[in-house]
């Protein structure tokens, strides 16, 4: 069973008790608010569809939360974004709000080779000045530039990395299982899409993660408005959300 299937199965009971209050698929993020007013975010992965119509029969509001969450187990990128946002609404509401810096937690030093799956520019700037080498793997060719590798280069480069940061969007495009299989060093999953799921810290076979660095939505109405107006990460950081972190004590 792949990770996203195990994730949905672990939350099935809780999701079954909730319905969907409202959904917005924004230009950068997708936001889902559930019947208990919990709110979750996930990146909108359009996968080159240029925001084409989402093929889902009937309105999403009022539907069982479990129905939308199961979209994460499909090959449809928009359904997967909605599914992960629904899952994150449940997972993040009780997640501890901690301001733990991933660089400090993972103990990055000048001897470390660091891999970053997804071009997380603010983090990359801090890592580059501390690590021996920084390798950034990016699927979106529009973000390719000097020093940024295509995502397929991870096949031979990730195994030699001492530390790896993986964007939470890897759950949406279903690359998370293989990426974790490639990693031999310390791993953190990072960004607003990150599911704060403790099982990832406990270990799924050999796929144990040291830290999960995500967000908890504190003001659903404000965040929903920002997403609906096409806002990006900087629009809701420290305004409507708070950093939420789960870390492994065994790391």
Automatic annotation (TrEMBL):
The record ties this protein, via Gene3D superfamilies, to:
3.30.390.100, 3.40.50.11590
Task: Using the record's annotation, list all stretches that form the DUF4213 domain.
Answer: 10-91
Q: Which Pfam family, any one, appears in the UniProt record?
A: DUF4213
Q: Which domain of life is it from?
A: Bacteria
The residues covered by the Putative heavy-metal chelation domain are: 102-244
The identity of this protein, by name, is Heavy-metal chelation domain-containing protein
Per the UniProt record, the source organism is Acetomicrobium mobile (strain ATCC BAA-54 / DSM 13181 / JCM 12221 / NGA)
């Amino acid at each position: 069973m792949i990770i996203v299937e195990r994730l949905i199965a672990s939350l099935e009971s809780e999701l079954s008790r909730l319905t969907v209050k409202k959904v917005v698929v924004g230009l950068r993020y997708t936001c889902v608010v559930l019947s208990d007013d919990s709110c979750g975010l996930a990146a909108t992965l359009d996968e080159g569809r240029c925001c084409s119509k989402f093929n889902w029969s009937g309105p999403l509001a009022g539907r069982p939360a479990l129905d939308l969450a199961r979209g994460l187990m499909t090959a449809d990128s928009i359904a997967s974004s909605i599914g992960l946002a629904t899952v994150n609404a449940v997972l993040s509401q009780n997640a501890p709000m901690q301001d733990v810096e991933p660089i400090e937690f993972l103990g990055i030093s000048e001897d470390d080779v660091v891999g970053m799956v997804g071009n997380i520019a603010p983090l990359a700037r801090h890592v580059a000045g501390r690590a021996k080498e920084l390798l950034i793997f990016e699927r979106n060719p529009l973000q390719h530039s000097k020093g940024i590798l295509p995502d397929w280069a991870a096949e031979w480069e990730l195994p030699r990395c001492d530390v790896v940061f993986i964007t939470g969007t890897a759950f949406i495009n279903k690359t998370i299982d293989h990426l974790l299989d490639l990693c031999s060093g310390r791993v953190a999953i990072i960004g607003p899409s990150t599911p704060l799921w403790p099982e990832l810290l406990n270990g799924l076979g050999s796929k144990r993660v040291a830290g999960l660095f995500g967000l908890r939505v504190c003001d659903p109405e404000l965040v929903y408005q920002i997403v609906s107006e096409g806002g990006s990460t900087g629009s809701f950081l420290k305004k409507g959300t708070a950093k939420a972190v789960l870390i492994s004590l065994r790391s």
